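Next comes this protein:
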Amino acid sequence: MNQASKNLLEGVVTFAIGLALRLFTDGVETPVVTLTKVGVVMMCIGGVLVAMGLFQTVRKSDPVKGD
């Protein structure tokens, strides 16, 4: 498994976990941060990982580069 595939997979999983936290932990009280905010942050990180994976996939198959 290459780095682009790893980034795509990790990004999708991270986004899914963040989405679940965002949707289903609305009433949960924690001392420091709310779990819904953690979910939003995880969704952002997952989106960045997916974007990086897509960029690496496109960059790897660039015909100008010759790879």
